[in-house]
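From the pipeline queue, job 12 of 40. The input is one protein chain; the requested action is below.

Action: predict structure.
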Amino acid sequence: EAANANDTEQVKKELEETKKMIREKDSILQKLKRAQEEKLKMLEEKEKQLEEKEKELDEEVNDITKQVFFFAFVFFLFCFIMYPFLSIKKKKPMDHNNNNNEMKSKDLKDRSELLIRERDDVKKQREHWQQLVDEQKERSDAFRKQQEDLDNRHKEVLELHRAITEEKQKLHDEKKRFLRERKRWEKEKASKNNSGSIPALAAQQKSNQNPGSLKPVSSANRFGAASQSYGNMGMGGSIKESRGRLSLRQRDSNFEYADSECAETVATDLESLNSISDDEEPETDDGTAKAQHLQLPINDYE
């Protein structure tokens, strides 16, 4: 029982420690989930911003390319139309206009190149953020698996606790049954030990014996027994004497002393034996000596 109690205490301590660990891990997982959700929200917002910026850059690049092509088309068309009508004197301002248009086209090209580079950078940033989002999703999956493992562990701990409580209840019932059996055995043992006590023996003797059937031993019986023993040996008188002795023995054997002194003394002895209590028995430290004292034969008490 002490070992079972120690085992149950150890199991309870282990259950409490596991519960504390589970609570701490649950709190940590909740914090990580919150941080993960916040980070995912930030990443989604950043991704939306990058997509919007990319769209704006694409639109701006498209506008710039359209403008470049439009200015180039207008310039070439103007040159093609005005070339036959231009004189030598008017070549200088045309050159100046051509230079201005070329400068503008170069600026537009440079600007378009810068915008294309920015767009590429934005794409790279978007890919990088997408990788971060994927990594965060993988972490969330790992945390989810860990949470499932913790839930399974918690279920196993609960099942173990339930099995321990059931086993403890079975042990408690077995202990109750053993105590009941032990009490019953003690009662049976006490009844067996008390069966050889003085009052029980006196009551048994009183129930078995009848005072009316008690007969004193007369001298005639003793004489008849002696004569019978000696008669077998061939020692005796005549046939008349032997017949007289035989009739005397028969009369003595058929005679009853119901109200004689011997019956009264035996009855008084039985009453005195019944009046003896267990308190008057000798006190001994040894249980076996007391049992032997209680189980003495009735002849010793007589």
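Job complete. The chain has three domains: 21-163, 198-214+258-302, 216-255.
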